[in-house]
Amino acid sequence: MGADVEKDHGSASLHSVTAEELGDRAPVEVVPNSKYKRWAQNIKGLETRGIEPVPLEERSDPSSTALLHMFLMWLSMGMAVNNIVIGSMGTLRKQLSFTDAALCAVFGNLLGGLAVGYMSTWGPRSGNRTLIVARYFMGYNPAKVCCLLNVLTNLGYGMMSSMVGGQILSKLSDGKVSVVVGIVIVVVASWLLATFGMRIFQLYERYAWIAQLITLCIILGSAGPRFDFATTSAGTPQEINGNRLAFVSLCLSSSLSWLPVAADYFVNYPPTLGRWTTWMVTTVGAFLAITFTHLLGIGLGSGVAHTPKWSAIYDGTAGSLLMAGYDRLGAFGKICAFINTLSVVSNNAPGSYSMSMNFQMLGDVWLKVPRPVFTSLSTVIYTACAIGGRDSLYEIFSNFLPLICYWTIIWFTIVLEQDLLFNRGTGYDWSAWNDRKRLPSGFAASLAFLIGWAGAIVGMDQVYYTGPIASAVTGGCDLGIWLGIGFTGIAFPPLRLIEMKYVGR
User: Would you say residue 425 has pLDDT above 50?
Assistant: First the structure.
């Protein structure tokens, strides 16, 4: 870990709190403005800051509404229609009963929400984006691997969300608007929010949840009576247990996809905002939003599986799943489904924003490229992928989400152990964020990361590969997430002790 915070940071203050009183949360050094930033300042509303930390004097006041705004932002981001698709997989693909699938969703999202809440606290504490903070746990260069993995994660999520939005718009127009055109409409809206930056995005998210919640309550009232609460899970006891664990992992993966970006959205808040408060507000907001949409998807999936009329409407697309739920409402149902499409933008824009930051974190050369260039490039890439994979939505969801969870949970295990076991009470020197000589060497974290991946591989059960441990389980069972945690958790502490003894940082 980086050196303990020094006591000579000066007398800079925020809201009458001195640097010495803030301890490890002292002011940071800021990279001078580039030519791009000076040019961009002429465009009203365009965010000019790159990955450099937000200094204390530029952060917002910890007003009484700050916690409410944080909660509403996570409510808007999590209450997305693509989470309805994930929920429907529990009853449609895993053939679980409503009760089994619902319990899996609640448990998986509770675990994921607690993890996301913990990572979000680093934003106010440091003023740094999540994967800049990762340098203090992984080392300067190894953290770049996490940046690359998160770029791939957000490209994949952007692709899936755009496909969901495109399918809904196409279904609403009875095919007059093609899925391709629908995808383009969604990504353009997401690109605009991501390009203009966090303040505009947070303002949008502050109100977007209202329409989303109203329409989701409408579909719950309309479709709820047709949810199937009676049918039991299909398969042998071993197969049912395997499907339960697989669906828990899928719901957990959905929440954990926010882990590498959780702190990005709170860097404009001051460190005087309590860590426990930030943790709980984020956890509750993310848990409630994602769990609600998962449960709604589980109910819709159970209705499609056992209601002939819904089965006739459903053609394997997200649009038809929603239209089945809104079937009784006619034209008004189509209006509600269109509003649901806006939730895709709420879910997509933050990933595009963070992805552009991840590109800049790859090194000083990348840092010189303006952030909107990366936002635009990543948007073009995931748009092309969405258009190419628009007919394979469920397969992409089921195959891609576990891969996200494998690396994020391994990385999070290292972060948690480093912070709780090795840096508890010692503080962090946030001015070292871009100095590789003052950051950990990263040997222990890198080796533990690889060992964790070995555990995930031997325990994974996917269509493209089944590990030897997973194949030994009767009926098949994806144990990749849990073995990844176990292998990493056991390996990292002794490796870190060795690193500290011989390397010293």
Answer: yes
